[in-house]
Amino acid sequence: MTDAPDNPYAHPATSALPLGPAEEKQYSLLTHLLSIFFGFVPALVFFVLFKDRGPFVRAHTVTEWNFQLTVLIVQGIGMVLASASFFSVFASAADGSTSAPPGIGLFLIGYFLMLIVRVVAAIYGINASVKANRGQYYRYPLAIRFVK
Q: Domain tally for the chain?
């Protein structure tokens, strides 16, 4: 009786090799810098790809992901406030009042909240990327910890 030939298309189950310290710093730095422009997506992608390949890159991707989810929630609140201004304009128009619409204040608060959050996120992201490049751990001071 002969043995069955090996399948040339089958790949052996291998675990990913751990990243070196320089690679961990590089991917941690990229996580923070790309998240300034693309929100939570780079943190999520790097977390899925590298979470089991090094503790340093895992810590930075989790930190960035938590911070970007916090930023997303605050921006959602700002968007709700800005959108509520349009409903108040329609409500005041239905009443027939000729005074200034009351929703202008809500719009400005919501708009400036969204703007300030993005500026603060960029400043914190640059600070976190500098820390990652130096090989130091970093936690955002205002982030809600969703992922541990």
A: 1
> Is the Cβ–Cβ distance between 84 and 106 less than 8 Å?
yes
Asked, for residue 1, whether it belongs to a domain, the answer is no
H helices of 1-148, in order, are 21-38, 41-50, 55-95, 103-133
How does pLDDT run across 6-41, given as a tens digit for each residue?
666 666 555 678 888 899 999 999 999 999 999 999
Rounded-to-integer distance, Cα 146 and Cα 69, Å: 8
Residue 115: inside a domain: yes
Q: Is residue 69 one of the residues assigned to a domain? A: yes
Whether 11 is covered by a domain: the verdict is: no
Structural domain including 81 reads 21-133
How far is it, in rounded angstroms, from Cα 94 to Cα 104? 16
pLDDT score, position 102: 61
pLDDT of residue 29: 95
Residue with tokens 């820390």: 131
